[in-house]
Amino acid sequence: ADRHQVIATLPLLTDTERQQILYDWNDTAVPYADTETIHTLIEQRTAAQPEAPAIIFRDEIVSFDELNKRANQIAHYLITYGAAPGTIVGLCLERSVDLVAALLGIFKAGAAYVPLDPNYPIDRLEWMLTDTQAPLLITHSKLQQSLPLTAAKMICIDTQWSEISQYPDTNPECMATKD
Question: What ranges in the chain are assigned the alpha helix state H?
């Protein structure tokens, strides 16, 4: 209709299609009580659908039940070593199922975490550990050499799993609040 129209300015979608793609399909907000914590939401989902996949990472599929049990064992282990509300736990793991389970375990213990990227320079990691005074540090054995010397109790979740797995897989008493 207008041969002088620049092709780059032509609309590819109708107004209805644009509304649907940009707004209607992205209206995914789900209300939940603001008193809930992430780990209690996982516990509720575990109770409702224990066998549903919670994590798909590479070739590994972990159900909500398995994830919750792993996180509970980590939480009980951390509690034994003093994790509680107000405690900061260093977390230096690559993306993995262990990372998610450790995060949930820290939350279930009531503690907070400080993310320590294994790719950070050792001076940065040392400063972060010193600054936060984290008494516990969760990592993998292959990352242990890239971490600075620290007073924190180092927990290598891969090589110490046989010890951690001896702890109860039941939900610990919830010590964390939404705050």
Answer: 15-19, 38-48, 64-80, 97-108, 122-132, 161-164
pLDDT tens digit string along 84-141?
998 999 999 999 999 999 999 999 999 999 999 999 999 999 999 999 999 999 999 9
Interatomic CA distance for residues 48 and 64, integer angstroms: 10
Residue that the structure tokens 């792993």 belong to: 70
pTM here? 0.82
DSSP 58: T
| DSSP one-letter code for 23 | I
d(CA 68, CA 73): 9
Following DSSP, what letter does each residue of 158-177 receive, concatenated? TTTHHHHTTS--SPPP----
What span, in angstroms and rounded, lies between the C-alpha atoms of 135 and 152? 4
Separation between Cα atoms, residue 74 and residue 12, nearest integer Å: 51
- CA atoms within a 13 Å half-sphere pointing along the CA-CB vector of 119: 2
How many Å apart are CA 16 and CA 25, to the nearest integer? 12
